[in-house]
Amino acid sequence: MTASGWKRSLLSWVLAAAAGLLLAAAFRSMVAQRYRLASESMEAGLPRGAVVWVDKTAYGIRLPMTPVAMPLLGEPYWDALRLGYHRLGRARPRRGDLLAFNDPQDAPSPIDKRPLLLRRCAALPGDTLSILGKNLWVNGDLQAFPERGLLLFRLGGDSLACLEPDSAQRLAQRGIRLERVGGVPGHSDTSLFTALRFPFWNADHIEGLVVPQRGMSIPLDARHYSCYRHAIVRHEGHQLEMKAGQCFLDGQASATYQFEQDYFFVLSDNRDAIRDSRFWGFVPESHVVGRVSED
Description:
Blueprint: H1 3-30, E1 32-36, E2 51-55, E3 61-62, E4 87-88, E5 98-102, E6 116-123, E7 128-132, E8 135-138, E9 141-142, E10 151-155, E11 159-163, H2 165-173, E12 178-180, E13 205-210, E14 217-219, H3 222-235, E15 240-243, E16 246-249, E17 252-253, E18 256-258, E19 263-267, H4 277-280, E20 283-284, E21 288-292
Antiparallel strand pairs: 1-2, 2-21, 3-4, 5-6, 5-21, 6-19, 7-8, 7-13, 8-9, 10-11, 10-12, 14-18, 15-16, 16-17, 19-20
């Protein structure tokens, strides 16, 4: 082979390899991805280290927000170029879907480069939800507890264990004394996502919370400020302050606010051990990556 022929062959090989890498990166970024569960994301009875598939086409394909990246080489990316949120096609998640989404908590990294979390979709945009004694109610209807969900029980004396309700029932039938931990209003939990403390609201007791929906308007009073400040500031990019009972939006006195995107309320299947929307608030549509296959 001549020198020029060798160079052409090498160039063809390099171009083919580059094309393969780009196709693999595009597939992983926008179509499907294998994900290994960490303890923080443990869901649906899946053990730590289990591998699941995330279908990124289930709710429409979210286009990359940081397009200059090398996802096959440890996720390095060029931070100077960030694109807005865009999705090809649009299908809304259903209640009960196991969602994969980027961590909605404050972080300096771009949305699509944040850690992936898995939680159960409990309520959709516009839904009104309540959690009463660990039971989830949506739009006035009691929702079934996840099939492999876990609750915290006290066994006999001071021993604690997360058990499936059916397993707890079988233990009780064998004469083992069980007591569900929590589940009733009794104290205000400052670790909830709300900006202000609500009397008797805690992880097991939340009443009449409406999930934000694109175009939904809310009055900016003390209750709505407390429930929605985190979404307005963290996810919609506005400044919102309350002074002497008056809300100021981006420095201007405001009586109402209209949401710019849809949100979801998610709950962990391991309800008493894993943090979820009760603690860090609603998940914006822009953060939703796809649906986890549970087959």
